């Protein structure tokens, strides 16, 4: 007691070194205070179970809430994983109470597509999974429930690891595309889409979609997240026929891509602001860089064309390198023509002229 509940092994070591003044050390009796003060959880063993068909064992978990809501006002996402194939489904939710309705919707979908039933469902003991409606639904369909012990997330390791993998992808993709946090809902969906098409060592280096469909996956439709895209529009006869967008997903059941035109301009604007450029007060597609209150670099953005003008080639090369690092672009060299106009330069006089051949012919 004088040594503050030291262990029996510690006392024996002290006695062997003759540091206890010859006191005899007897076997210590059970100390309730040591149990209360030193108790720790036993380590978790490796859970082993084998599944032989789709939906024989399904894990689910609800992530959230998150401070930054999506543009649709959602703060949660529900993940559902088939243990056999490793395929994951993601549903972005506004409230915890939406969990049962979304799970029921998912269950109806897989019953129709696969003509099979879920045999066992593993979740935590959160109220969203143990409501009377949820329990009654599982009882009627004969779904066996495996509920993990409170505060033991290790027992639902598959769902937790999947959420961690998804969130790692979300952070990387948001950063690489320079998208703001409210886009996390779209990124969560595309992250799950890509995970289902990536090789997994736990599946014998096959993809979840290959085990799901029995066919190798086709990657020809994949695009870089946040990449530049153009969506066709039809306005008046003299109006533009496309708007600039950024690819942000693969909507299910649609032969096309989710695009965000406004976000492309915001992404480019944010990049230029980080580079200390200023946007022109006369044209939002013109950016200027000043030094000592004098403009020494112009950037003109029109649809998918960028024109740079400066008295310093080093500054132009530096900006082109930063643009190439941030965006997918191709350097076309010195500009000779843009928007149907020829570009004439007189470097000795520092003059730059734009000449329209059509207007020149009409004036003659």
Which class do the helix and strand fractions yield?
Answer: alpha+beta
Low-confidence blocks of residues: 358-364
- For the record, give the distance between the C-alpha atoms at the N and C termini, rounded to a whole number: 109 Å
Helix-strand string: HHEEEHEHEHHHEEEHEEEEHEEEH
Q: Give the strand content.
A: 15-25%
Rg (CA only):
31 Å
Shape: extended
Keywords:
single chain, 364 residues, alpha+beta, five-stranded mixed sheet, four-stranded antiparallel sheet, 22% strand, extended
How would you portray this structure in words?
- The chain is α+β, with helices and mostly antiparallel strands and 364 residues long.
- It is 32% helix and 22% strand.
- The protein is built from ten helices and 15 strands.
- The longest helix is centred in the middle third of the chain and has 21 residues, at 157-177.
């Amino acid at each position: 007691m004088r040594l503050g509940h030291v262990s029996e092994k510690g006392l024996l070591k002290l006695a062997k070194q003759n540091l206890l003044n010859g006191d005899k050390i007897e076997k210590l009796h059970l100390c309730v205070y040591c149990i209360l003060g030193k108790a720790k959880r036993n380590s978790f063993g490796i859970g082993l179970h084998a599944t032989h068909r789709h939906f024989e064992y399904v894990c689910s978990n609800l992530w959230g809430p998150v401070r930054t809501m999506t543009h649709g006002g959602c703060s949660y996402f529900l993940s559902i994983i088939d243990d056999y194939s490793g395929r994951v489904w993601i549903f972005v939710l506004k409230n915890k109470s939406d969990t049962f309705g979304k799970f029921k919707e998912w269950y109806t979908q897989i019953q129709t597509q696969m003509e099979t039933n879920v045999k066992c469902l593993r979740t935590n003991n959160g109220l969203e999974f143990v409501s009377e409606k949820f329990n009654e639904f599982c009882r009627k369909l004969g779904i066996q429930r495996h509920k993990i012990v409170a505060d033991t997330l290790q027992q639902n390791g598959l769902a937790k690891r999947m959420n961690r993998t998804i969130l790692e992808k979300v952070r990387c993709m948001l950063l690489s595309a320079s998208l703001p946090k409210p886009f996390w809902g779209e990124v969560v969906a595309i992250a799950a889409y890509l995970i289902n098409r990536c090789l997994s060592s736990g599946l014998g280096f096959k993809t979840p979609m290959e085990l799901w469909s029995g066919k190798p996956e086709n990657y020809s439709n994949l695009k870089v997240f946040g990449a530049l895209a153009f969506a066709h529009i039809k306005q008046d006869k003299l109006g533009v026929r496309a708007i600039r967008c950024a690819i942000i997903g693969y909507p299910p059941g649609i032969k096309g891509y989710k695009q965000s035109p406004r976000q492309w301009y915001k992404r480019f604007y944010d990049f230029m602001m980080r580079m200390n450029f200023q946007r022109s007060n006369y044209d939002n597609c013109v950016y200027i860089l000043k030094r000592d209150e004098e403009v020494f670099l112009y950037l003109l953005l029109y649809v998918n064309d960028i024109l740079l003008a400066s008295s310093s080639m080093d500054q132009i090369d530096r900006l082109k390198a930063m643009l190439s690092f941030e965006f997918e672009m191709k350097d076309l060299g010195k500009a000779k023509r843009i928007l149907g106009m020829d570009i004439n330069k007189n470097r000795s006089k520092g003059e730059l002229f734009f000449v329209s051949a059509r207007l020149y012919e009409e004036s003659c």
